[in-house]
Specification:
The protein is mainly alpha-helical. It has 15 helices and five strands. A five-stranded parallel sheet has the order 3-2-1-4-5, sandwiched between helices. α4 packs antiparallel against α5, α5 packs across α7 and α12 runs antiparallel to α13. The two termini are 14 Å apart.
Length: 382
């Protein structure tokens, strides 16, 4: 039985959540805006790079002005449509074939290839990305308080892996900008300097494994001149006040570019990501995002729009959902409990989080298969 966490009385973040501290009034440091200056510094830099990108002339060194990281999700599909049909940039749509993507994501990519007049390039490295994920998931439980975003280390590591692959591709092809369609919340917590992206990877995995995973190529980025390195651009920095996932999905479906809900395009490791967060930090994977929505609603009762890929309903009892999800995830990981009871509990929970019944059942099945997916990857659960 997990001890009951003391939670922030505004957003429900627990006092054991990585990087979160509660004051004497039971309000967390995020609600008190104690991290605002660091986030604003990142915002200023990303806004500066985006403005530079908008004003940049055509790339004189190659055929493309930017490498566009295209995942098949709603954010990148929505923005790729704009880049191809509205903006004047010569765009190379780059897709890293992550072996954990759902079949729905692959279908969205196929739709884009059929309907958008873009140049598409595909990259993959199943062996090394799986090796990296085994390293992350099989680490012992941390003995010290975590830092902000530590509960998302597997997800952040996976994303960083294919961002570095994109950096290397752009570096070799002399493409000056890399477009990364992070949503407005993700932008504030992502590193935007390519040299720092590589340095952060070294710190997480150590120089030996980091070098091995990329066949020594990332040393070229570390020691290149600043002018030789591509810059990361976040296009949603300009749309941060209008970002509306539901509207974007609706427009894409009207154009025949998107067939799934955001829940259905989650990677197949989504259940294991929740297992990791619950095992190490006692929280669900999306807790920061759900808490951010709760915080925004508390500050502005008219606020009814998500700044993240998943919209959370106003009526959501976040502590109850987190506690119930945690119990089911732990039982599945341990191989205990009744499968049918787990299925119905998960469907109910995801529908409470505004998923359709079909989407909720799709995601529930992926949770029920968690142990098989873990065994196939060499990840220990239980």
């Amino acid at each position: 039985m997990q001890p009951t966490a003391v939670r922030c009385r505004i957003c429900s973040l627990g006092d054991g959540h990585p990087g979160v501290m509660l004051d004497d009034d039971q309000v967390c440091n995020l609600c008190n805006l104690n991290v605002a200056e660091e986030l604003l510094d990142n915002y200023r830099y990303t806004h500066q790079v985006f403005t530079e990108f908008q004003q940049a002339p055509p790339n004189p060194k190659g055929d493309y002005d930017c490498l566009f990281m295209y995942s098949g999700g709603k954010d990148s599909t929505y923005m790729l449509d704009k880049f191809v049909n509205e903006y004047g940039k010569r765009t190379l749509a780059y897709t890293f074939d992550v072996p954990f993507e759902s079949s729905h994501t692959a279908r969205n990519i196929q739709l884009a290839r059929e309907k958008l007049p873009a140049t598409f390039v595909f990259d993959s490295d199943d062996e090394n990305i799986k090796k990296m994920m085994r390293d992350v998931f099989n680490r012992p439980r941390p003995s010290e308080p975590g830092k902000y975003l530590d509960e998302k280390l597997p997800c952040v590591s996976c994303r960083t892996f294919f961002v570095i692959r994109a950096i290397l591709h752009a570096f070799r092809e002399r493409i000056p900008y890399i477009v990364l369609c992070a949503d407005p919340q993700q932008i504030l917590t992502m590193e935007s300097n390519v040299r720092e992206v590589v340095r952060g990877f070294y710190r997480t995995f150590g120089p030996e494994l980091a070098s091995e995973l990329f066949d020594g190529a990332i040393e070229d980025v570390l020691f290149a001149e600043d002018g030789e390195l591509p810059k990361i651009v976040f296009p949603f920095i300009a749309l941060r006040h209008e970002y509306d996932p539901e509207r974007m999905v609706r427009e894409l479906k009207e154009k025949g570019l998107y067939e799934s809900s955001p829940m259905e395009t989650h990677c197949t490791l989504f259940p294991l990501l929740n297992y990791y967060s619950f095992k190490n930090w006692g929280c669900m994977f999306y807790k920061l995002n759900a808490s951010s929505y709760v915080r925004a609603v508390r500050r502005n009762e008219n606020y009814d729009r998500s700044t993240f890929s998943i919209r959370f309903p106003r009526s959501l009892d976040l502590p109850d959902v987190e506690d119930r999800l945690g119990r089911v995830v732990r039982e599945i990981a341990a191989g205990t409990g009744d499968r049918e009871e787990h299925r119905e509990a998960l469907v109910d929970l995801f529908m409470q989080m505004d998923a359709t019944e079909d989407a909720a059942r799709f995601v529930a099945e992926s949770f029920l298969d968690m142990r098989k997916v873990a065994a196939d990857l060499g990840i220990k659960v239980g």
